[in-house]
Amino acid sequence: MTNWRRDYAMLALRINRLAGPMLIYRGPAEWSTRAETEPPAVPGALADEAERLLAEAPSAYLAAQVRAMRAVARRLGGERLPLAEYGRECLGLEPRWVPEAVFERAHAELDAALPKTPGSPAERLRAWQAAHTLESIERLPALVGKAVAETRARTAAAIIALPDEVVECRLVEGVAFHGAGEYEGGLKSTIHINRTIPFNLADLLYLVAHEGHPGHIAESMLKETLLGGQDVRFMLSPSFVLSEGLGLLAEELLFPGDEAQEWLNANVFPETGIRPGGGDFAAIHHARNVLWGVWGNAAFLVDEGRGEAETAAYLRRWALYGEEEAELALALLKPSPMSPYIFGYFHGWELLRPWVTGPERARRLLTETLLPADVRPHQSTPGAS
């Protein structure tokens, strides 16, 4: 088993060197140093190594990780599967085209939830975002700190006890993401926020719960602390479908109904000069979760060779993006070995929302090595409330 774990880690590190970043690694430093200093691996040899490890995998969870690595190694070697098939090999579920009728229902939900101002739903959504934008980004770390304290307290009360932990917020630039949660080990974590993107304070708990608790930081910390053996996590894999699904579900788990909006009205907006109210935040966030499905459809368009103009128009029509937002999305949707990851958001959220019926199942997501196949199938209409 020791040799298998070492070889598994080296496979992940070697693939990550060729196609990264797609790995969370906190294993022995000598292994990562070796992978970085040796000659780059040959993709075909990595695919063969994945086959060998797959035959000897000690658990279904680790087999799923290796199967994803094998798919990436084959792609690096020149194999070009249709995006849905490549996504299935990597994610352990079948990415699919989401019918536009699902997005039409989300648009109607936004129409009802946004303040009754003039304009189209897209224009009203941008106006709502602007009305809640933090004027000075330098104030954000302190506000994130307040949100972290609240989400940690609610996670501990409603789902699972948390160890004492230091969580910082860092403003960064030159990155593609808006926010990212990182558990650094040793009960120390950081939420990174892109300082170049205007920050909508109505999304404060939505983002902090997703990236922090009970989302990514809580999951990484608890699994490393409770399970061990979680020092190698290949990100383009079935387990991350559940991670992103949990992230999108996180605010709703801690702040049912309008509790998130009430907390922001009482604890954040008064000190930032933002007028409380302004629509139904929970319904707006639900609709935006549904609209993550637009990104998957856009990825299919790109994979089919559709032009940037057509894909950008699709994003504007269905994701309600402006010109600049659509351009930024196009840059992230360019074909790469990591392309199927985008499906994890909508499909993971859709899979988990009817399954997480109480704290016990949320706790299982945070403490067990589950896969999409372990989550009970459901018959709900995609994007339904």
Strand order of the largest sheet: 2-4-3
Mean of pLDDT:
94
Strand content bin:
5-15%
Count of DSSP-assigned helices? 19
Shape: globular
SSE class = mainly alpha
The arrangement of helices and strands along the chain is HEHHHHHHHEEEHHEHHHHHHHHH
Q: Total strand count, please?
A: 5
N-to-C terminal Cα separation, in Å?
A: 45 Å
Topology:
Elements: H1 2-19, E1 23-25, H2 29-37, H3 43-55, H4 60-76, H5 83-91, H6 100-113, H7 121-131, H8 140-158, E2 166-172, E3 179-183, E4 188-194, H9 204-211, H10 216-226, E5 232-234, H11 238-254, H12 259-267, H13 269-272, H14 281-290, H15 292-303, H16 308-318, H17 323-332, H18 343-352, H19 359-367
Parallel strand pairs: 2-4
Antiparallel strand pairs: 1-5, 3-4
Protein name: DUF885 domain-containing protein
Organism: Nonomuraea solani
Q: What does this entry show, briefly?
A:
The protein is mainly alpha-helical. It has helices at 2-19, 29-37, 43-55, 60-76, 83-91, 100-113, 121-131, 140-158, 204-211, 216-226, 238-254, 259-267, 269-272, 281-290, 292-303, 308-318, 323-332, 343-352, 359-367, and strands at residues 23-25, 166-172, 179-183, 188-194, 232-234.
